[in-house]
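Quick illustration, no need to memorize.
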Amino acid sequence: MKRFLLPVGIIAGLSLAMWSCADKFAYEPTYAIPLVDGSLTVGEVVGALPSEIGSINDGNRTYFQLLYPDTLEPIPFSDFGQGNVPSGVSVTLDQQDVFLRMTGKAGNGTFQFTNPTVEFRFTNTVGLDFNLFLDNTFTRNVATQVDSFFTINNLPWFIPRGTESTPGNTMHTVDNENTDGALSNVFSPSPKFLYYTPRIVTASSGTGIGEGEVGVIATVKLPLEGYATATRQDTLPYAIEDQAARDAFQENLEFALVRLSFLNGLPVEVELTGYIVDTLRVDPNFGGPLRLADLPLSGQDGAVLANDVIIEGAPIDANGITTPTQTVRDINININNDTIKAAILEGNAILLDYVISTTDYTNSNEVIFYSDQQLDINMGLKFKVAVEQDRQELLDSLGI
């Protein structure tokens, strides 16, 4: 949504400094354009569908996990033969794939999940015991087509026999422990497919006769705990449509800034760069909207920040609880720089590039993203101009 120029008050607010000359009034109105007032949660960053988000309660709080289930076609008894079926009969199923969407509003990054699992649940109503093998297990990055293979060390898995009335139910899990830590790497959050080929073999414990089937449900579970870095981009439209304000901005600008206020309750820190852009034209060098000018960031002390962390990560106590912290940053606009002033009038949006990292990412510090954490964001463009107006014209305009 485009944000429009809002003068701050009319008399008391607008005339922040007013004095009388012989027959003219001089005053310094401040204008404000709200750009964004919202919040960002972990669910919005990963962009998961509601059906893909589960929760885990650690006894005190709830944190997220991503869920990607895959239900296989049941394997009937007849696939293993007729009558008495000896041990060692093998049935290889078609290659299975699970789409791990994980797109979201972030990109070009990685999330090292420290506790990922693939959970296999089996329901056996065949009067036979089975061993399950998983052949050719790997993930494939949708964008790069790079395959990442991994080996599961504790195969085969035993699936006990059962009947229709008393199924043989069991569960087995693939995790970092039985893959030599591979899952933390192959499940980094860019769109991927998980591929595996199940092979079921009648166990050596005996033969059986009967009906029934073997059911298999595989679920990828990715608790949002670990360490991560990613990029994000926001385009914030604005408009200065009042001609008097445009003229005053061009000729009598006193100061101008973009103020960014953050209340951060997430265990992440953020680097940021900003640009004035025209979204109606394409930048020949970077693609996307045409960049008209850079917007240098400065701290509250006025010092220019260059590639510095501008949003500090929320402090984390021994129980993983964060304390929201307030950060205010300004993009001070050089009022003596005609290029920047012209860019603001010519442009129609501010482009913000973020680099988001979990707290102490470089040291592989593990964090947990809880469901009650969020980052509140408030941004606005402010500028003050010096205006001089004929006394009588001003009185007439006010009806005095």
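The two ends are 38 Å apart (CA to CA).
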